[in-house]
Amino acid sequence: xxxxxxxxxxxxxxxxxxxxxxxxxxxxxxxxxxxxxxxxxxxxxxxxxxxxxxxxxxxxxxxxxxxxxxxxxxxxxxxxxxxxxxxxxxxxxxxxxxxxxxxxxxxxxxxxxxxxxxxxxxxxxxxxxxxxxxxxxxxxxxxxxxxxxxxxxxxxxxxxxxxxxxxxxxxxxxxxxxxxxxxxxxxxxxxxxxxxxxxxxxxxxxxxxxxxxxxxxxxxxxxxxxxxxxxxxxxxxxxxxxxxxxxxxxxxxxxxxxxxxxxxxxxxxxxxxxxxxxxxxxxxxxxxxxxxxxxxxxxxxxxxxxxxxxxx
Length: 312
Known about the structure:
Blueprint: H1 4-7, H2 30-39, E1 44-48, E2 56-61, H3 62-79, H4 90-96, E3 117-119, H5 125-132, E4 137-142, E5 151-157, H6 158-167, H7 174-177, H8 181-184, E6 195-197, H9 202-211, E7 216-220, E8 226-231, H10 250-257, E9 266-268, H11 273-283, E10 287-291, E11 297-302, H12 303-310
Parallel strand pairs: 3-4, 6-7, 9-10
Antiparallel strand pairs: 1-2, 4-5, 7-8, 10-11
Helix pairs in contact: 3-4, 3-9, 5-12, 6-11, 6-12
């Protein structure tokens, strides 16, 4: 397939809406970080250096917070100390007030351990390769006008690239756009999926998600049909006032916090790539669950899968 307009273009060209960088100083709390993620509808938060106020040294993402929430909150819950209000452990509130550095990982396997960086004039090929291997975002620096007075950094994400491809279909072969999902992503279909029951307690579901190193789960009813999508991103906006939601069943948690999202977005194996791209971009989602005729999930296609396809 011909991808020169994208792969050989400059990094900044794919960033359709060059948003101001949403970043935070290193003295914010975990709770404040979650509030920022929810307010700006983002999944990661660059953190500035203690010593160089305008230099990003870490990008905390929602999976880092997921790991922190499941480990520290479960420990506090097991300790049995309650805060009185709805039997929420008092330590849970303390955890939200912890410094954001409590979330930062030293695990080299985690994406946030090393910040993937590029410059705005760099070719996109290397970034596409990184995105196709599971990297979700790149910190882009712009030195174009004056190296001594660069423009503010910004984040280029997988979503930006997929949206670019969707809006510029000429960079793909027409035949490819009309090829079915099953033909293009055979490894993504008919494989073991990570699922949780709709009556599973939320905190336990998130703990399992962290153990499996997943960022989302298909939520199933008693018949095995998909009825929802539980994502690490659903933790955004978690505050002291709604901590009790972590004790609720998954279906109650999703209905209470995200009723505006409606039903889960799915596709079928015989849908085309064009349909998949339309769906991903119109719903601003990061994955589409592939279902059979009985609405049972048989696969999942992520933005990583789509970009890996573009790299072939």
